[in-house]
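Before relying on records like the one below, remember that each one covers exactly one chain. Contacts with other chains, cofactors or solvent are not represented anywhere in the record.
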Amino acid sequence: MIDVMAALIDLLQSDTGVSALVGDHVYGSALPPSEAGRQPSKAVVLRYAGGGGAAPGSADYLDLAEQRIDVYSYGETMYEADKVRRAVHSALKYVDRVIMGSVLIHRANWAAGPITFMDPDTDWPAMVETWNVMAAESAVTT
């Protein structure tokens, strides 16, 4: 099975708007301990959210999967976290059949958010949005 999380990390790190704000500080699942120990800074964390909608073909033999992803945007202040969120939103909103590594991402649809909060693990200002990402289930070659 393909790694949608890795493909989305690559996609966001290669987006000029996102990388101008966070550099390569885009992670899957959680902030690494080296990052979490620093003062609040800009970063993005992607987490599987579960409960994704049924993708066309998900109940038959089409080679498609839709995964629900929570995207956490961090910043030094809530306003800075929102700058990161808006850059990520723009990057994902315009995904249209792009290949990242060996993953063909068909689209990303905004599903919920934004929600603002202070991350309980880091005490950093954060915002979260949820996205439904449709991708081919098999790896592609270019």
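The mean pLDDT is 89.
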